[in-house]
Amino acid sequence: MAKLAVFDFDSTLMDGETIDFFAEVLGFKSEVVAITERAMAGELDFYASLVERVALLKGLPQAKVTEICASLPMMRGASEVVAGLKERGYRVVCFSGGFRDATKPACAKLGIDADFSNFLHAEAGILTGAVGGEMMYSDAKGDMIVRLQNLLGIDRANTLVVGDGANDLSMFAHADMRVAFCGKPILKEAATHSVEVKDLREILSIVDQYNSKSLTHLSD
Length: 220
Fold this sequence. Notes:
- The chain is of the alpha/beta class.
- The chain has helices at 18-26, 29-40, 46-55, 62-69, 78-87, 100-110, 140-152, 169-172, 185-188, 202-219, and strands at residues 3-8, 90-99, 114-123, 126-133, 159-163, 177-181, 193-195.
- It has one domain: Rossmann fold.
- The chain is globular.
């Protein structure tokens, strides 16, 4: 039976928020962090908050973006959880409201099957402050997970989703196993499981317990 696992990137697969690392270089970290926290708590529209934060990055050299993204800190247990899920028959995918500059190298290193994220616009090697992509809206992850499920022939009973913030809610609506990883209260309310320690390996135990119960139910 084919299975699908979808992970958020920032503060889930990666220990931090990519845009905060960019903003720190420009001296805008406190402003960007404040907006990010409100957006992840569901207090701000995700699209509007993303556009507002990226606008503050105008002038950042693309080379600096690449340099920062090459050394982002992965969450503890990231490699192990991806490998463990693959051993258990899962296709592992990353959805990010963040940026391809960060997700592409990280997901390649982790062995993730595909990543979907946004693009920072640049001209002459300098960020313009504009952003585009399919992960810019609050319902984007939900729309994409349904498209993937249809493409791969995987139902919600065999879908695992893992995230931390409000923009993960839309994909939580389409999976039976929903893990809030050090999540915001708004996401915990929609989750079937919560992990409160920064160690993604905890998810493998949750998956094994869930699948064991499912097999028991089928045999009854």
